[in-house]
Specification:
CATH architecture: 3-Layer(aba) Sandwich
Radius of gyration: 18 Å
Strand order of the largest sheet: 3-4-2-5-1-6-7
Distance between the termini: 21 Å
CATH topology: Rossmann fold
CATH superfamily: P-loop containing nucleotide triphosphate hydrolases
Oligomer: single chain
Mean pLDDT: 93
Low-confidence stretches: none
Helix content: 40-55%
Strand content: 5-15%
CATH class: Alpha Beta
Largest sheet: 7 strands, mixed
Number of strands: 7
């Protein structure tokens, strides 16, 4: 059975998309079979991925036209179901009312039903969620085993953590097995005293949730997403070109994945 993980924070700009794409790319390089879903109508995960646009293959058309998952291959072990700007909360609800497949179903369980065919075909399903708590995010939580909460060392972003943890707690009435997988600190500058203070505060306040490795701020993270290149492929290119600067974000995500697999009691594939 696949492990389904929602990546969410109601605050924007905390690295949800970067986290999703990095975890998917690195895990697939370790021979895990991964499916990524872009639930955000801004389509950032889709835009930063090495895929060609196809109006017939996206999450919205998969849900309401094909009624089954249709994705795009990124590599031998990584599939993406691209996003759509039509996946707005009100449009989602309106479509459900008119769709014979779904009109009598619980509107918060549509993604859970939709993802069933993938459960035996992959190891991980990651959902990059929009920064809100509306119906699409509620569907993601209802379909997930775990929720991963990215944040950045800023008070505004930290305020969203407790809100998401409370949302997960409330959703146990609908999905009794969902658990927070952890909190991931992105864009961390170890030279900045404020970043250090916020990092220490998170370790004190969430000792069992915060991942031990923060993702250090690194221009190469921006470069590979801007160029639409997988993080593993970009790291390989830098190594071949003998670029002297370290790709610290890539190394940090590899450490986070080791810890994540340990939390999930899974084997680290080499």
């Amino acid at each position: 059975m696949a492990i389904t993980i929602s990546i969410l924070n109601e605050k924007g700009g905390v690295g949800k998309t970067t986290t999703c794409s990095s975890l998917g790319s690195i895990l697939s390089s370790m021979s895990y079979k991964v499916v990524m879903l872009d639930l955000d109508p801004q389509n950032d995960l889709t835009l930063c991925s090495p895929i060609d646009p196809n109006p017939d293959i996206n999450l919205f058309s998969s849900l309401f036209v094909h009624h089954k998952p249709k994705g795009v291959k990124i590599n031998d072990h990584l599939i993406m179901i691209p996003g759509s700007n039509q996946l707005q909360p009100l449009n989602f609800v309106d479509k459900l009312k008119l769709d014979l497949e779904y009109q009598f179903e619980n509107p918060r369980l549509i993604l859970h039903q939709f993802l069933q065919p993938l459960q035996e075909k992959c190891d991980f399903i990651f959902m990059d969620c929009p920064p809100n708590q509306e119906i699409v995010v509620q569907n993601a939580l209802a379909a997930s085993d775990y929720a991963l909460i990215p944040t950045v060392p800023h008070s505004f972003s930290l305020n969203g953590i407790n809100s998401i943890l409370q949302l997960i707690q409330r959703f146990r009435k609908l999905n009794s097995t969902i658990e927070p997988l952890g909190i991931l600190m992105n864009c961390y500058d170890q030279r900045n005293s404020i970043d250090q203070a916020v990092w220490e505060m998170c370790q004190e306040e969430y000792p069992n949730l915060i991942f031990n490795t923060p993702i250090r701020i690194n221009t190469k993270m921006k470069e590979h997403t801007h160029l639409g290149i997988e993080i593993t492929e970009y790291a390989k290119q830098l190594q071949e070109k003998r670029i002297p600067q370290k790709f610290s974000g890539y190394e940090d995500f590899k450490e986070v994945i080791k810890e994540m697999l340990n939390r999930l009691k899974l084997e680290v594939h080499v």
